[in-house]
Amino acid sequence: MGKYQRLGKNVALLTLGNFASKILSFLLVPFYTAVLSTAEYGTADMLTTTVNLVMPIFTLLVYEAVMRYALDQESDKRQVFSVGVYVTAVGSLCVICGGLILRSFETFKPYVWLFILYYISLALYNLVLQFAKGIEKVGVFSLAGIINTFVYIMCNIIFLIVFKWGVKGYLLAFVVGHTVAAIYCFLSAKMYNYIIGLCSVKMESLKAMLRYACPMIPNSISWWISNSSDKYILTLYHGVTANGIYSVAYKIPSILTIVINIFISAWQISAVDNFGSEESKRFHADIYSKYEGLLYIGAIFLIGASKILARYLFSNEFYLAWMYTPVLIAASLFSSLAAFYGSVYTSAKKTSMLMISTIISAVVNIILNFAFIPSYGAMGAAIATMISYVVLWVIRAIHSRKLFSFAVNVKKEILLFFIMMAEIILLCLDYN
Fold this sequence. Notes:
Layout: H1 3-27, H2 29-35, H3 38-59, H4 62-71, H5 77-98, H6 112-134, H7 138-162, H8 166-188, H9 203-213, H10 216-238, H11 240-249, H12 253-271, H13 278-313, H14 325-347, H15 352-399, H16 410-431
């Protein structure tokens, strides 16, 4: 099978499993804004955001190493998966102990055990799905995503409409969906055959995988800072209600992010093939050109349609969120461009610059958040996020060429950039 056919097949399978999940969760936005208050939605978002913060710390992002090392044909898959299982188990025990700290925060106190269960279910879900992708059981990966979606939707209906459990029901739906899908994936791919005793795990395997994964921990945390620190700072200055509205504003940009994450997930498999060869450079250049063009087309369309989409997706008290979506859509685009260059580092197993570039972006984001949010609120947060992702994109685009250089049409990039920014400025003038 050719490279393009293989990439296309994987994109199609991953779309089947992920797109349904992500797009349905997007379509649930009107449901959430109808059954949850702005304060409740803000609290739920803060809890899930916090899980995303602690996830790389306690899992050591071992599931990323599991996927990358499982892709190597010569690797011992039992060693790879077993390292992932034991590291995830130790991390989960730490979260159970440390999660009790949340009881000191009055807002989070009623949700401590759901917070812990949410973490454990998501950690296991990530581990088994990434291993399934690494051993190229992409069909199993996709069906697990569909199962997760179906269970998640049904639980939302039962927990939020029938039982009216509010924030607790919101979190529990995630827990049940992740758990059921993880069990299916584990059994269907017969992953029990890949688990060996702790004493049989080789220290060389553990060290090699952690050397790959550990530089990605500050990278992941920095991603979290760029994605989420604005929510905490916005809550600090303007309260959870403002954060609830701002969090909803992310839902329209998530359409772009959904599609890109699916592609990048498939691209990680294809990017490894003959990495560094002249053929792979031509392949990267061709794919990047198409990827970038489609990204800008999608972003420009969503920016133009953001006000119309908000009218149908957001209930009355959330409608103002549309004002922040054009800037956040642009932020998602630059994040996606940076993610493509990030695949160069993972393919080369040189992950340290992933960390450095993302830390720089995160620092820029925090500084700008404190500079803009007190005076400009959610709009300041959105602008800070966009600028930090532009910085990330530029750093990676320049530095990655030292490892792996492929042709880029700079004139086209500049033209598309100015077209999109002009559209955003016109929309800003419209609501001012």
